[in-house]
Design goal:
By secondary structure, the chain is an alpha+beta fold. It has eight helices and 23 strands. Helix content is 19%, strand content 37%.
């Protein structure tokens, strides 16, 4: 579930271990040390200090970890039986809510993360099992250079950017009551997770089923839960039920059209500023999947153009740092605490294009490449982020065409 996955899995493991076993300070200290060792070595000192402090808060050396005292599924109860109907209400920012049947009561929703994600359902099923629902955020939002892709592409990107994980089986498509969904399974240590991704009204959701390797007791629980899913539109009156979009059906392999390739029918796209006024135009291979997506204060995604399951062109904007010009900013790549690792593959270069003088650099981000161009203009930093797999270098032409045809209109 995005870059925080190892943390989620280890904290879940801590909740179970410390709730059920008499784990002493030595065990907890070792668990803390393991999490700290997983931090990216390139993390800046201040960010590393914050990450270490987060680990300390999550796993105290004494007492119970947060979440260990929640109501859990009774012993010997069937973890696949749906007993509790839960409602997650819509939020003021436009995220839809939903109603769903669960095996047991959910823990209270967690606070939103720095990337806008929220864990809204956590059902502890015992024996290392859990059912999670996470609102990942708005499709197209950019966080530390990585775009929150559409549901159809998130499994492929997750596998390419996976840290401390390994894929299990293939990516499958499923028709569910929540809508078209894409599913993949991966392992992390002795834990196995099956994530089912679905989008609604521009928001990204994932249903995660966590269990131990070799445990098949809860197989199919995610399908059973998704079959009961009912959306609640963000503008729906209180108590007004929402109809499901599609009937539940079994998973299938994605068809050729979903596998995707760089499209070949260019279109002119209008890019807006933070107020919605036209800022620029350029040519891209197809209409954007998302545009005008707000991020953290003062930031937004002007356009997210999907090219293939692992390739995209994103134009992102954020406040410029007057003391750090684009060339210097690219000299120090953005790093995520628990990965994926980022390795420069060349030096920063500057060149003149239609948009102005841009600084460019290519980075290796786990199993993908990212070529970035950026410039500062009127107090804003504009970033062109092209992500692609090693065998998709033809996508570089998409970035070049966008920069060549760029026209400012503000």
């Amino acid at each position: 579930m995005r870059e925080a996955l190892p943390v989620v899995l280890l904290v879940l493991g801590a909740v179970y271990v410390l709730a059920y076993l008499p784990a002493g300070p030595l065990f907890r200290w070792r668990l803390r040390r393991r999490m700290v060792r997983m931090l990216d070595p390139g993390l800046p000192p201040l960010e590393r200090e914050r990450a270490v402090e987060a680990v300390r808060r999550a796993i105290p050396l004494r007492g119970r970890v947060a979440g260990a005292d929640v109501e859990r599924l009774p012993a010997r109860a069937d973890p696949t039986e749906l007993r509790v109907r839960a409602t997650v209400p819509p939020t003021p920012d436009g995220c839809p809510g939903f109603r769903v049947w669960l095996p047991w009561h959910s823990s209270p929703p967690a606070d939103a993360g720095s990337d806008g994600s929220r864990q809204v359902v956590t059902v502890h099923l015992g024996s290392g099992r859990a059912l999670l629902v996470v609102v990942l955020g708005r499709v197209g939002r950019v966080d530390t250079g990585t775009v929150l892709a559409a549901a159809a592409d998130r499994p492929a990107l997750g596998r390419a950017l996976g840290v401390h994980t390994h894929p299990v089986g293939e990516v499958l498509r499923a028709a569910t009551a929540a809508g078209a969904a894409w599913r993949h399974t991966f392992g992390a240590g002795s834990t196995v997770v099956t994530d089912t991704h679905v989008d609604r009204d521009g928001w990204a959701f994932v249903v995660g089923l966590v269990r131990r390797d070799g445990d098949h007791v809860v197989d199919g629980l995610d399908d059973a839960v998704l079959a009961t899913w009912e959306w609640i539109p963000a503008d729906a009156p209180a108590g007004d039920p929402a109809a499901a979009d599609a009937s539940a059906a079994g998973p299938s392999r994605p068809g050729p059209a979903e596998a995707g390739a760089v499209p070949a029918a260019p279109v002119e796209v209008v890019l807006a500023d933070e107020t919605g006024s036209t800022a620029a135009r350029c040519r891209v291979p197809c209409a954007p999947t998302a545009a005008g997506v707000p991020g953290s204060p003062g930031t937004w995604t002007a356009a997210y153009v999907r090219l293939s399951p692992t390739a995209s062109l994103v134009v992102a904007v954020h406040p410029a740092d007057p003391g750090v010009p684009p060339r210097d900013a690219l000299a120090v790549p953005e790093v995520v605490a628990w990965g994926p690792g980022v390795t420069p593959t060349g030096d920063v270069r500057e060149r003149a294009v239609a948009a102005g003088t841009v600084a460019t650099r290519t980075l290796q981000v786990a199993g993908l490449a990212r070529t970035e161009a950026r410039l500062d203009r009127r107090g804003r930093t504009w970033r062109w982020l092209l992500t692609y797999a090693p065998d998709e270098t033809a996508a570089l032409g998409v970035l070049e065409d966008a920069l060549r045809t760029w026209r400012w209109e503000d």
